[in-house]
Amino acid sequence: MKNFPFYRQIDFKDCGPTCLKMIAEFYGRKISIEHLRGLSETSRGGTNLKKLSFAAKNVGFDVIGARLSLENLDKAPLPCILFWDNNHYVVLYQRVNETYHIADPAVGLIKYKKGAFVKHWASSVNNSDNPSEGIALLLEKTEYFDSVKSEPPKKKSGYKHLLPYILKYKSLFLQLCVGLLAGSLLQLVFPFLTQSIVDVGIKNESVQLIYLLLLAQLFIFLGKIALELIKGWALLHLSTRINILLVSDFFKKLMSLPISFFDTKITGDILQRIDDHSRIEKLITTSSLNILFSIFSILIFASVIAYYDFYVFLLFAVGSVVYVVWILFFLKRRELIDHEKFRLMSQEQSLVVELLNGMQTIKMNNVEKEQRWAWENKRVELYNVLIKGTRLEQTQDAGAALINELKNILITFYSALLVIEGNMTIGAMLAISYIIGSLNAPLHDFVGFVKESQDAKLSLQRLSEIQNKPSETDNGETKQLPKSSHDIEIKNLNFRYPGSDVLVLKNINLLIPQLKTTAIVGASGSGKTTLLKMLLRFYRPDEGTVFVGDQNLSSIDLKAWRDHCGVVLQEDFIFNDTILKNVVISNIEPDKERFLNAIKMANIEDFIMKLPQTWDTVLGNEGMGLSTGQKQRILLARAIYKNPKFLILDEATSALDADNEKIIVDNLERFFEERTVLVVAHRLSTVKNADQIIVLENGAIEEIGSHVELVQKTGKYYNLIKNQLELGD
To answer: Each residue of 408-424: pLDDT tens digit?
Structure first.
């Protein structure tokens, strides 16, 4: 079999589409991972065999998903996709005798003996009568596959992406380059001074000349130290600014992405990408400047060696080439280890975040040990990869040091022979020894730069995946909210979440009249919150349209639309900041009168005023220290302070006692009159006064009407109210 094309998964859950990408390229067609990820609907939980089969059929494969015995798998056409370790996908691309060749997108190209192979593959089948049975996705290309051309290669966000950051500080870069050049020239003087001391000063017994040469060396050395200090401060200034710019631009892009992007990423993947910026910043500043210095030093000093003796130069050149080739020999293996390290660090970070966020639940269920073990097991995996990397680096460094030392010994030996034969002075020999010693650092820096540029390339690859994502405002909307009618009309809307087969909203047709209150009720999971998120444009409908007045909601400027919406969602966030900042949630100077009115209407004024620092009290992360009811009232005050045209409340008072809820409902009654209100609630007291009540069941509208009309129907709404009253009794 020809060399199998290997690609590594970018994210933790990208194994399925990455396997399909490898097989497609094996058959001669290049398909982007983004396209395959979309077809297979890969989400934060990955993808399943059904969706992976759909993606494979879509790109031109005949697909059979089957549970096979090992005997039948050995007869199956290769390559094929295997379900691996019960949570992963790999490609089986070749079998030789009892050795199975696997392309694992998380690890690399690996060979397994029969026993080890079965252990990984058969673990994907539970309660099988046959212990050597597993799940496979068999693929054969069709005529359609050959008829479609490969996708044109996407413009990569490579090192050109970094050019604007360098140009922004080009004057500082230029100053640093001049400083490094001056340092190199000062360094160049030392071997000639050393030769002069020996060949002129000592030979002619001129103590005065020796003093003069040594004094010159001292001043040059002090000049070098001064240049190094200046370079250090300039680099610190430059690297700090570039790092801030890089991470700031990353956050700018990250915050422009739709909510659906965050639904498909685990937290660790995003945190690791933030860490990737430190590699890039180091490459742009320290490494790139050092390599310029190193290349200049190597060229100048190599020329000086050639001036002294061509054969010494030849020994140096051959030794240096062998040294560099030895280092480059390990780059591919370092790349594999780096990818594995990224994957495990991402998983470990996600576990830590999960552990900290779920501490209350962990303690409630006495599972501290189990959760700690889960983290420890992941840490052990990471430790083993780090050990593997350390061993590789030690082998690389030991071999490089040996090659370098052998080169130095051979040059010293040959130079000594030339001195004995009278073809070289002792001073020239010492000068060459000094130059060889000085060249060790630039050569090491050159190799270090190769390593760091490889690391930065991998980091850029991961970051470019985010930079190439379309922003949620990339659909060209420019229109403002219509000035006349603000009725919201939903027509034939269908929606399902990415990675799900189930329609969450089905054929929704609905008119939400302006300046009226519309309530949405229904059982948990009926699609109430999803409908609100569709109106906020967190997601785009699979089918159907939403209008505001006579304008399509998708054509209205997104920021302008959200500026007009005051929202309280169930998963809304309270920041680690003051109560005032959490309500105002803007850098604009707070309007104290509006703020006081908002906290009064949300019935949290008394609580805030009793605090020692009143509204300047800093709240803990996610509102730590507040009750759920207090959090809800602060979130409600936030929505009221915004003074929106549209008020959207999702279970905004669900955690409040009856007295608090009654006060807030009474306070909001006049506030509701001046705006369009959409309320999701379970409690009768919250919805009964609504102008219109929508009953949702399994994502579809079952009933529409007022409280009185729906009770008279004795349908779904009536049963919901009846059950609630019975529970109350």
So the answer is: 889 888 888 888 888 88
Written out in words, the top-level CATH class of the domain with range 477-564+646-656+674-729 is alpha beta
The single-letter code of the amino acid at 727 is L
Indicate the class that CATH gives domain 15-147. Answer: alpha beta
Instruction: Work out whether the CA dihedral 678, 682, 687, 692 comes out positive or negative.
Output: positive
CATH hierarchy code of domain 159-467: 1.20.1560.10
Type of residue numbered 694? I
CATH superfamily placement of domain 572-643: P-loop containing nucleotide triphosphate hydrolases (3.40.50.300)
Q: What is the mean pLDDT of residues 371-394?
A: 88
Identify the three-state secondary structure at position 32. coil
Answer whether residue 243 shows pLDDT above 50. Answer: yes
E-strand ranges in 171-315 read none
658-673 helix and 592-601 helix, angle to the nearest 10 degrees:
130
Please give the model's pTM, rounded to 2 decimal places: 0.68
Mean pLDDT of the chain: 82
- Confirm if 464 and 161 have CB atoms less than 8 A apart: yes
Statement: residue 548 has pLDDT above 50: yes
3-state secondary structure of 612: coil
Please tell me the distance from the alpha carbon of residue 567 to that of residue 678, in angstroms, as a whole number. 10
| Residue among 95, 83, 70, 87 at smallest CA distance from 135 | 83
Q: Can you give the pLDDT at residue 364?
A: 80
Distance CA 298, CA 184 (A): 10
CA distance 349 to 274: 12
Close Cβ partners of 133 (under 8 Å, ≥ 6 residues apart) = 67, 68, 69, 70, 122, 125
User: What integer pLDDT is reported at residue 176 of this predicted model?
Assistant: 74
- List for the chain the helix, strand, coil content (%; round to 5): 60, 15, 25
Percentage of residues of the chain with pLDDT beyond 70: 90
Write out the DSSP string of 23-42: HHHHTT----HHHHHHHTT-
